[in-house]
Amino acid sequence: MARKPISEMSFLDHLEELRWLLVRSTLAVVIVACACYFIDDYIFDQIIFGPKDPNFITYRFFCQLTRFFGVDDTYACATEYSFIIQNTEVGGQFSIYLWILITAGFIIGFPYILYEFWRFISPALYEKERKNAALFIIVSTLLFFIGVLFGYFVIVPLSINFFATFNVSDAVVNQFTIESYISMIKTSVVASGLVFELPIIIYFLTKLGLVTPAFLRKYRRAAIVIILIVAAIVTPPDIPSQVVVSIPILILYEVSILISAVVVKKEKENV
Question: What is the pTM of this model?
Fold first, then answer.
């Protein structure tokens, strides 16, 4: 069925469009998740449990970096992580298995979800803006995947390295549940991917008139505080890790200000 012109669509019509957007997006996630079933060994052994290995690429990089600057490499160059991952629930592993496949389906299927989102909002945009659909999907996808990689190769290893080596006493043995381990990875990876969409979010908020570059500059200090708080939540409680995570987010915020300024300038030129 062809879509009605936006001027003829009622509130219920918009809700119907939104419902089908969610249905198609969910179906896409499920299909990709089912496809991931055929590579589940690789997903779990190489990706999920990859950061558990002291020879993981991130650990080797930070180890070489600390040695290059002549810093004590005891923390960065761990040769063994003395912890085990255990399952404590009857259906725990099966539940984790399903959620990992669904998460993989969401991450891999994210470009299609963006396409559906664009189809939903495009009727409210100018014709010239609708022609930028491919650019929107490419940039948004690129930012999301960069965020996912940042979460996986930076935040997750920093967290594992800290919590695996931290010990209040030799009498305590680290035995992490699989639920907490997987939850940390999912949260770090997906949240990083969504946070890296900040420039795109600011673009649309500026188009709607809800945000201006002046507003973003005025509350820059407050934004920095919020960013530091977020970094403190998603990273281990050590200063180097928080700084490493904060820097990319601060850069994204500054880029968002520039994007907002460009949008406002073009809006004034079109008046």
Answer: 0.84
